[in-house]
Amino acid sequence: MRWASLSFRTVGTQAAAPSVTAHFAPLASSLLPSDDEGEGRLRVRSVWISDVHLGTPGCQAAALLDFLKAVDSRHLYLVGDIIDGWQLRRSWYWPQAHNDVVQKLLRKARKGTRVVFVPGNHDEFARKYLGHSFGGIEVVDDCVHTTVDGRQLWITHGDHFDGVIQCAKWLAYVGDSAYEFTLRLNRHFNSLRARLGLPYWSLSKYLKLKVKRAVSFIGDFEQAVAREARRRGVQGVVCGHIHHAELRYIDGILYANDGDWVESLTALVEHLDGRLEILDWSDRAAWGAQAAGDAATASQGVGAAAGRGVAA
């Protein structure tokens, strides 16, 4: 079996390690195909995911389901924007793959994983149910996670630190529509790249990192979240919201953003020894899509050959 590369960044109890790229092959023994029950093969202590945006065409539900099947944890934190209520109000979009993700989350809760849901701005409707539990999934406004080595991490979606969301929500809706348009353009663009044998490339991510104002917004957001974590007396913070995975120290506070499942396909995990790591699932997802395409092409070829044989 061929294994794609898996990119990651790790942070232990010391300073943040630089970004590195590791090959997936060394993890083959711990990331075997899932069994019938769907239990994970990479066992970690905690997982954080956010910005899934179920209910939108941009959601990479198949890749997320693959991740949830491959990774097993004691704690699973859903750090906001899991369901996109904004988009669902405009037009209903809910394919079977999105149902499968919800069912997988509920199954994990039934099988003993502690699943905690911290709503974001796109699923703010869930904030009406803080303190309740649905199917074993706890709904909270924010919470604190204690790592195995004793560090306390404050968990929040992060939209409270976005001035546009707080002061000009109408502008946030306009920006959301523009973002959806960019994602649609990106899907067509990458469909063409795939036919040319080129890897996935994120247009919106490129624009965010090239536009000076967007880069400034990301930096300001990270600084504001880190300052609030310091004020709360914790050692770090885990958030989402800006679709930009990051793991580093800001003035002595560990800042972790778990990214998203629309573009970057990333998650934050805590290993059994307390190490924190960002897993990049995009390479594995791209390889899976390519393998599926190759299989479909081969199947069509066999069918065509069989058809010619019958005709002869």
Total count of helical runs of at least 4 residues: 8
| Count of individual beta strands | 14
The largest sheet, given as strand count, sense and whether it forms a barrel, is:
9 strands, mixed
Question: From N to C, what is the helix and strand string?
Answer: EEEHEHHEEEEEHHHHEEEEEH
| Distance from first to last alpha carbon | 37 Å
What is the gyration radius calculated from CA atoms?
Answer: 20 Å
Instruction: Please state how the strands of the largest beta sheet are arranged side by side.
Output: 2-1-14-13-3-4-5-7-6
Please bin the fraction of helical residues: 25-40%
Report the average pLDDT across residues.
77
Q: Stretches where pLDDT falls below 50 for ≥5 residues?
A: 1-8, 13-38, 163-175, 290-312
Beta-strand share of residues:
15-25%
